[in-house]
Structure formats: structure tokens, C-alpha cells
């Protein structure tokens, strides 16, 4: 019977790398920084939708906040799947793109809430 520890699977040597690679400390720091910044911007946007321009909130402001939260929902699902290892690493760029889109949507919402012309 073959010794399974010596198989090379077509590579030049022993290949005991994980399937999707390991996450480096730099990648984890970037993920936490981007995620933290996006979370902060979303939190400010949701709070602003209820507080500005005055209480009670305008229905359009609340609708804008709901749209932002719905966009966050699909991104959170992708991040969850990515962290479980169900998605390939190339989906990380899609997650970054979606987070940038959410930040820009929050920027538009905050400009609208504060009546910037």
C-alpha cells in the first residue's frame, strides 16, 4: 500500500498547504480596519437618519437607512461565508467593492440628511 504522506500530487515537492492559504496578520489587520471603518460610517448614517434634521424623523431618511442596512445584509452574508472557507479568496475583492459601495451610499445619505448643497 502507498504511503499517503509522501504523495506530491503533481507538484515538485511535498504540498501540505491549506486549500485556500492562511490569513496573514497583515490581511487580518486590513480586514478589521476596513470593516471597522465601514461599520462606523453605517452606524453614523443610521443614527443621523433618525436624529437629523429634527425629531420625529422624516420617512425618507428612515427609508434611506433601511436601504443602507439591506445593502449591509448581503455583504455580511458574504463575509460570513468567506470566513467559514466556503468562498475562494478572489471573493475578497468583491467584498471590498461592496464595502466601498456601502460607504459611498452612506456618504450620499449623510449629505442628504444634513441638506448639503
Largest sheet: none
Uncertain segments: none
Mean pLDDT figure: 82
Structural class: mainly alpha
- What is the ordering of alpha helices and beta strands? HHH
The first-to-last residue Cα distance is: 76 Å
Strand content: under 5%
User: How many DSSP E strands?
Assistant: 0
Q: Gyration radius, to the nearest Å? A: 21 Å
Number of helices: 3
Oligomeric state, counting identical vs distinct chains: single chain
Shape: elongated
Can you walk through the features of this model?
By secondary structure, the chain is an all-alpha fold. 65% of the residues lie in helices and 0% in strands. It is elongated and about 65 Å long. The termini are far apart. The model has no long low-confidence stretch (mean pLDDT 82).
Summarize the structure.
The chain has 117 residues and is mostly helical. Helices cover 65% and strands 0% of the residues.
Amino acid at each position: 500500500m502507498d504511503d499517503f504522506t509522501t504523495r506530491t500530487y503533481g507538484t515538485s515537492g511535498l504540498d501540505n498547504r491549506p486549500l485556500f492559504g492562511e490569513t496573514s496578520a497583515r490581511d487580518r489587520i486590513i480586514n478589521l480596519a476596513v470593516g471597522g471603518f465601514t461599520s462606523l460610517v453605517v452606524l453614523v448614517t443610521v443614527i443621523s437618519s433618525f436624529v437629523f434634521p429634527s425629531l420625529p424623523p422624516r420617512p425618507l431618511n428612515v427609508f434611506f437607512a433601511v436601504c443602507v442596512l439591506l445593502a449591509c445584509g448581503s455583504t455580511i452574508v458574504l463575509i460570513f461565508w468567506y470566513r467559514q472557507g466556503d468562498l475562494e479568496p478572489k471573493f475578497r475583492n468583491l467584498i471590498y467593492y461592496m464595502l466601498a459601495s456601502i460607504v459611498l451610499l452612506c456618504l450620499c445619505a449623510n449629505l442628504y440628511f444634513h441638506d448639503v448643497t
